[in-house]
Amino acid sequence: MEIIETEKHEDARGWVREIYSGTLGAELQNIHLGTMEPGAVRGNHRHETSREWITFLGGPVKVHLQEATGQKTLIFEPGKTIKFSPGEAHAFENGGENTVYFIAWRDHHYTDDDPDTEPQKLI
Q: What is the pTM of this model?
């Protein structure tokens, strides 16, 4: 897992963050946007061959990881992108009181026949 800082540009109209600028060294194949209601859990899986990046647009979000030394939990607020390498199990939990939006992208083309997603319950 790698944590990538994203720069926030803000003025009277609001803010914008550049979360992807073509510099990841990957050919992106799947981009998806989703929500997590308060207390909701997403993930609880790993990807056999693909890398995945995710940015949360709200928080706090508890990010649960399975590492070689055991399970680890981190708290994330907006402004960071998390990169998961193949085989790294991960789960996300909305620990706040509001809906959290997220955007995620992978370097694997998702199909029902080849989702490259293996369940692995962390929470």
A: 0.85
